[in-house]
Design a protein that fits this description.
This protein is an all-alpha fold. 66% of the residues lie in helices and 0% in strands. The protein has one domain (48-201). It has helices at residues 3-18, 48-66, 70-125, 134-137, 139-166, 186-191, 199-206. The model is unreliable at 175-207 (pLDDT under 50).
């Protein structure tokens, strides 16, 4: 088999292992969180290995006199094995969760950028004769694109009105202090009013 093919298969196998988290050995003793029940707070602290060693080492000669039963020892040993088995899968699982959460966020951001691109394209075509019906046919898309910006404007107006009613200072919005005009940020452009032709499309293409 060619070396390049063997290398490709090795990389593919490694990637598959990274994406495979088989925690079935934990299923037999897994605890499932219940609504309203707090997470157990007694967790491992420094010195625990020495404590366990002391208990195990003294059990044969001193256990009965100290009141430490065989059931106690079995419970501790079982807990040791179960915790070790659980921790064996925690690291990979946490990494996978991080990858999945970031992937969801990044893909969703791309989806919203695409929606903004579409809404902006509709806005441009609305300026052309004969496309008046596009406003109604894409009303939800354009409203969704502008919802964040509209909410921000309403919030600023409400806070300004509250400040005027109470005699307090008027809060400065993104437009600058004392209502001075300011060039809209790119974030505001993406969330609110249509941006310049091709700017968002160019951004998407660069990714």
């Amino acid at each position: 088999m060619p070396r390049r093919v063997m290398k490709f298969l090795d990389v593919a196998a490694t990637t598959e292992r990274r994406w495979s988290v088989d925690a079935s050995p934990v299923a037999a003793f897994a605890r499932y969180p219940r609504k309203g029940k707090p997470t157990p707070k007694r967790q491992e602290r420094p010195g625990l290995p020495e404590v366990l060693k002391e208990i195990y080492d003294n059990q044969e000669d001193l256990g009965a006199r100290a009141g430490v039963t065989a059931e106690d020892i079995l419970a501790l040993q079982t807990a040791d094995l179960q915790i070790a088995a659980t921790r064996q899968h925690l690291g990979t699982t946490r990494q996978l969760i991080g990858v999945l959460e970031y992937t969801e966020a990044d893909v969703d951001e791309g989806r919203h950028r695409r929606i903004n691109t579409i809404a902006t394209a509709v806005d441009r075509r609305l300026q052309e004769p004969g496309n008046e019906d596009l406003a109604l046919r894409y009303a939800k898309t354009r409203a969704y694109r502008s919802a964040v910006a509209v909410k921000a404007v309403r919030t600023r107006r409400r806070r300004t009105q509250e400040a005027q009613d109470t005699g307090g200072p008027v809060p400065a919005g993104k437009e600058g202090k004392a209502g001075a005009s300011k060039k809209p940020s790119r974030k505001a452009s993406l969330e609110g009013a249509p941006i310049a032709d091709g700017s968002l499309a160019a951004n998407d293409a660069s990714k």
